[in-house]
Structure formats: C-alpha cells, structure tokens
Amino acid sequence: MNPYIQVDATSPIQLPKKIVICGCPYSGKTSLIRRFLCNSFVEEYSKTNGIDVIPSSIFFGEVIIHYNIWDFPNWEINKDIVNRYMSKTDAAVIVFDNSIESYHYCLKWIDVLHQIYPDTRIFAIQNKYDLIKKYDSNWIIQCINELKQKEVPYYQVSSKSGYNVKNCFNEILKKLFDISTTTPLIDPLETQEVPEKKYYCKNWFCSYQQL
Question: CB within 8 A of 80, min separation 6: which ones?
Fold first, then answer.
C-alpha cells in the first residue's frame, strides 16, 4: 500500500532526502529522533542494534518535503562502515553529549566523512543540554570554535526537556531543502486539517512509537 495520500496529482513533490543521525554511543540519538518526530521521551535506555529508517514529511508553502531519517547504531566508526551506509547521504547529523570524549568521537565522524563524502552536509548536535551545568564549559567554547572553523553548524538541544529540538531540525531541513528561513514549516501531525493540494504521510508514526 502506498503510504502517501494523494490529494491532487498536480501538486509539486520532491524526492525524499536521506538524513543520517549518527555519533557517539549513549549520546541520545534515538531519543532525539523520538522527541522531534513524536514529541515524547522515554527514560529507559534501549540500544540501537541495527539501522532504523523512519520516513517523514513536512509542509512548506504549496510543497511538501519528504525525508528519511536513518537512526544509526553504535557501530565503531571506520571507512568501511561509512562507505557502505553513508552513500547518497544528503545530511549527516552527528550527535554528542556533554563529555569531551563524546565530542572527540564527533570530530572523528566529521573527519572520516570529509575524507570519503566531502559533499555531504554535516551538522553537529550537542544533546543533554539540561545537564550541561554539571560539566566544564571551557571545552564547549573550544568545540564551538573548532566546529566553526570546520564550517559545521552547531546546535545545543535536550531530547529530555525538548529544548531547541524542533527549532534545530527545522533549521536543518530548511538548509537542506534551500527553504527561506522565514518560511514556516508545518508538521502534518500538528494540524487536524490536511491542506488542499498536498501529499501527506503518517504511517511511520504508529510503527515508530513501538520501537
């Protein structure tokens, strides 16, 4: 069954983008995805053993944009893994937490991606912002400067509290699809009425809730 509800065959539609969420183990990658897509948070830790691919959509203007989020497992970063699974990636979102070890792991991801797929757009997300006061902030200032030198956009979020998660991903999507920063994005799950002349996908929601 086609998961897309066709409202008007003349409506403009784009092919889905591939967005890979990767980074340091235990940095809250899956929790970050769940917060963005489902606006929920689960305290219990559940290790991601394989790659989960979650299709989603969001409206802007008269167009609906489609993207697939790849939830990457805690595999050791190496060139073989990157060659096999990061091919044709439109955006790599590298997640780390408040430890300097986690940040160094993020840098390793960035370096390997730059070597193998230099055209892939990279974004860095520091998760667990709600716990940031427990850590030394000096290295955070350092990491901000280093990421700026590498021309990697940097965001601070908290998947637990929801702080800045939606704004962060909306900004990433706008950059990825070359959308004006002033154009509002409309999540299909937040509106009860489906705009006319649109495509709309929601089948991923129930299945992803059960992961």
Answer: none
